[in-house]
Amino acid sequence: MSRAKGADRDSEVLGPEAVPATAPLPPTARERTDVIEQDMIVERLHDAPPEQRTLTSKMFGIGFSGYFQLVVVCVVAGAIFQAGGIDIFAPDFSLQRIPGAVANGALSVLGWIIEVGWRPFLTGLLIVVPVWLAWRLLTVPFRN
Fold it and tell me: How many CA atoms lie within 13 A of 102 on its CB side?
């Protein structure tokens, strides 16, 4: 009995919020319905078939990091070609010269990129992007 009188006294002094409830309140009908509806929505999301992606989203849906990597590859490839003296627009351009020129250019790439930063990107862009587009087009049937 003394314990009940003490609890009443605490609620009078501290207010009803300060006295902990002895048992949690049962959920209302609306709360039970909300939980059931949320469970049904989650089940529908897991059971739904994946959406078909368009050709454009399959080709170019690589995200920011994918485009950043593409830019880096363009810069590196262009730097190697430029440092090796390979000019794909020159009238005397020859595919037989490429391996030796690439080996020579790879040795001086780092310093050359520091001096002239935009040229490697442009040259790499002209070389890498068509190859990248062709690869993406060839692998479209294998992507979701």
Answer: 10
